[in-house]
Amino acid sequence: MKKLLKSSKAPKAIGPYSPAIEVEGFKKIIFLSGQIPLDPETGEMVGVDIKEQAKRVLLNIQALLEEINLSLENVVKNTVFLTNLQDFSDFNEVYKEFFKEIYPARTTIEVKGLPRGSLIEIESIAVEF
């Protein structure tokens, strides 16, 4: 069970993420390596803009979790790497299509470059409840 943690003495989230979450009674923790927007069939990069690439990355994360009978609901933390923080709003639009409240805790970092010229990479931590 995930529970949103917030405090009147700490700032509210400025996007689709939770400042902190508490997880009780989980069976195991799954650490997903950073995913970039690669087509699972061809291994080639997908998308030319952040929305297309973010969607592919999140679909790849979803597929990995489904392989072990989990879903995005099991994700408790995401670390997002963007090559341009100007893409933050567009990324959030896509992100909200995949994650619902209670959103995972999240860190978003701007980086100089990512593998294969990707605009985005996401690593995740999921738990089995």
Automatic annotation (TrEMBL):
<dbReference type="GO" id="GO:0120241">
    <property type="term" value="F:2-iminobutanoate/2-iminopropanoate deaminase"/>
</dbReference>
<dbReference type="InterPro" id="IPR035959">
    <property type="entry name" value="RutC-like_sf"/>
</dbReference>
<dbReference type="GO" id="GO:0005829">
    <property type="term" value="C:cytosol"/>
</dbReference>
<keyword id="KW-0378">Hydrolase</keyword>
<comment type="similarity">
    <text>Belongs to the RutC family.</text>
</comment>
<dbReference type="InterPro" id="IPR006175">
    <property type="entry name" value="YjgF/YER057c/UK114"/>
</dbReference>
<dbReference type="InterPro" id="IPR006056">
    <property type="entry name" value="RidA"/>
</dbReference>
<protein>
    <submittedName>
        <fullName>2-iminobutanoate/2-iminopropanoate deaminase</fullName>
        <ecNumber>3.5.99.10</ecNumber>
    </submittedName>
</protein>
<dbReference type="Pfam" id="PF01042">
    <property type="entry name" value="Ribonuc_L-PSP"/>
</dbReference>
